Amino acid sequence: MLDDITKQVAESDGEYALDRKDVAKVLYAVDCDDRDALIELMEPLHAADIADLLEQINAFDRMRLVKLYGQEFDGEILSELDDAIREELIEILHPQVLAEAVRELETDDVVDLVEDLDEPQQEAILDALEDSDRAAVEQSLTFPEFSAGRLMQREVVMAPDHWNVGEAIDFLRAQEHLPEQFYHVVLVDPRLRPVGNVTLGRLMSSRREVLLTSIAEETFQTIPVMQEEGEVAYAFNQYHLISAPVVDENDRLVGVITIDDAMAVLDEENEEDILRLAGVDGESRLSDRVIDTTKRRFPWLGVNLITSVLASLVIAQFEEAISQLVALAVLMPIVASMGGNAGTQSLTVAVRALATKDLTGANLWRVVRREVLVGLVNGIAFAVIMGVVGVIWFGSPALGGVIAAAMVINLVVAGLAGIAIPVVLEKAGVDPALASGAFVTTVTDVVGFFAFLGLAVLVLL
Amino acid sequence: MLDDITKQVAESDGEYALDRKDVAKVLYAVDCDDRDALIELMEPLHAADIADLLEQINAFDRMRLVKLYGQEFDGEILSELDDAIREELIEILHPQVLAEAVRELETDDVVDLVEDLDEPQQEAILDALEDSDRAAVEQSLTFPEFSAGRLMQREVVMAPDHWNVGEAIDFLRAQEHLPEQFYHVVLVDPRLRPVGNVTLGRLMSSRREVLLTSIAEETFQTIPVMQEEGEVAYAFNQYHLISAPVVDENDRLVGVITIDDAMAVLDEENEEDILRLAGVDGESRLSDRVIDTTKRRFPWLGVNLITSVLASLVIAQFEEAISQLVALAVLMPIVASMGGNAGTQSLTVAVRALATKDLTGANLWRVVRREVLVGLVNGIAFAVIMGVVGVIWFGSPALGGVIAAAMVINLVVAGLAGIAIPVVLEKAGVDPALASGAFVTTVTDVVGFFAFLGLAVLVLL
Question: Where is the chain membrane-spanning (chains A, B) (predicted)?
Answer without folding.
Answer: 298-318, 324-351, 372-395, 401-425, 437-460
